[in-house]
# Entry
Amino acid sequence: MQGSPMSSKIVVVGGHNYTDEAKELADLLGASHIGLTYKRFPDGEIYVRLEEPTIISGSMTVLLNTMYPCQNDMFVETLFLLNAVKRYNPKRIILCIPYLAYARQDKEFLSGEAISGEVIVRSLSLSGADTLIVVDIHAPHLLDHFGGNTVNVLISDLLVGEALKSMNNPLVLAPDKGAVGRARYAAETLGLEYDYLEKHRDRVTGEITIKPKRLSVKDRDVIIVDDIISTGGTIAKASEIVLEQGARKVYVAASHTLLIGDALNKIKRSGAKMIIAANTLAQKINDNFIRYVDVIPRLKEVIGTLIS
Ligand code: R5P
# Structure
């Protein structure tokens, strides 16, 4: 535990798979970090126990966890941690979930579907979180289902800033119109130009087509920014299209690089030079093709502002 003057006021609890990030956050905040016992019963059920729970009483408690990989287990773990924290009477619980799972199911696309993202956000609220901080949630309107203060932290400027170290004449590009806010945010923060490609996803077959726009990508270094890289299909296709249109180099970046199955090789084959990723997930892929940026200092800034 840290010994700064703030340590009696702020306590950080981290999910069992996100402990390094929780310790880093506690260090940056000058807060106490509470350890955790996590285990599974023989039937697969999850057990959590906070070490030193009494220091929570009267504190601002920050609960930091993410929801990938093993979305369902990490969601349940988060609910259990909220329950454990709540019973020790913190002044306020700030729940920080850099990757909020199920946010892509943000409406009833086909009749009869559950709105899974709504269920996740409501459950977190009902389980005692006072404030919810997420990073670049796919559908920000889902946060309206939380019964308290929410913050959606954009990090596209950090991702693009990392790529800029090796780019000339850069252009920030979103793979579709819906993602353009992310490209705009990075471009405006860093004083760059931005644009977007048009994408269509067939909801039944999942097939993606990207209609090329008249982009001035010729001889430019392009960074394509998205919220999620899942199968890699969207960003690999965007990368191929931009290279066909004469871009000199293409980098791809996303706030949440799930990189399912063959996604990494797919992106390598697309001609992109590198993936810029962030530590919003409890997985770090060790490959020279991926460069990670650290989002914890940005979260510390946001939490510091909320607390003050
Ligand atoms: C979709 O609307 C999202 O913003 C991402 O573009 C999508 O989730 C990426 O998925 P994939 O990598 O499977 O193409």
